[in-house]
Specification:
This protein has helices at about 5-20, 25-40, 45-50, 55-70, 90-120, 130-150, 155-165; strands at about 45, 70-75, 85-90. It is mainly α. A hairpin with a 7-residue loop joins strand 2 and strand 3 (about 85-90).
């Protein structure tokens, strides 16, 4: 691999470390995902230890977390060996759709329910609070619709829908 390619790969992996932190994961999760993303074939825990320099326990814990989140997948060794290997999910849109379904939709639904209860609690009351709650509820309804649409379409389908809407 050329030096330029190594530098570019390292920059991307560092960006993945930062992204992992933004989403509440450890930097090691970003680095392990990056190592697997750029790997030509699935890697075992010892191979990930060699590539990242992390302790075996760290790699084991992080691979468990990343597997649970669907960012990486467990693969059996060729020839039926017992050593488990891991491969990165490279379809990032699939991961985002899963995040939309598992986390964003749940948060939107919870907040929307709270806003509806607050509106009912106000009854027929008129005023600034009632108006602001109604506006916020309507915004959350719009957000729920956008997330439902985005999580139900492939990236290409969503792009096509947005392009046709622009015309």
């Amino acid at each position: 691999m050329s030096e330029d390619a190594e530098i570019a790969r390292e920059r991307v992996i560092e960006s993945l470390e930062q992204s992992a932190e933004v989403y509440g994961l450890s930097r090691s999760a970003g680095r392990l995902y990056g190592a697997l993303y750029f790997a030509d074939e699935p890697l075992s825990i010892p191979e990930l230890v060699d590539r990242t320099g992390y302790a075996k326990s760290t790699v084991s814990n992080v691979t468990r977390t990343l597997s649970r989140l669907g960012l990486i997948h467990r693969r059996s060794s060729d020839g039926g060996g017992r050593r488990v290997r891991f491969a990165a999910e490279r379809e990032i849109w699939y991961i985002l759709q899963d995040v939309f379904r598992q986390y964003v939709q749940r948060e939107l639904q919870t907040t929307h329910r709270t806003l509806r209860r607050a509106e009912r609690g106000l009854g027929e009351a008129d005023g600034v609070e009632a108006e602001r709650i109604r506006e916020l509820r309507e915004t959350y309804e719009d957000l729920q619709e956008v997330v439902e649409l985005a999580s139900g379409l492939s990236a290409a389908e969503l792009r096509d829908a947005l392009e046709s809407h622009e015309r």
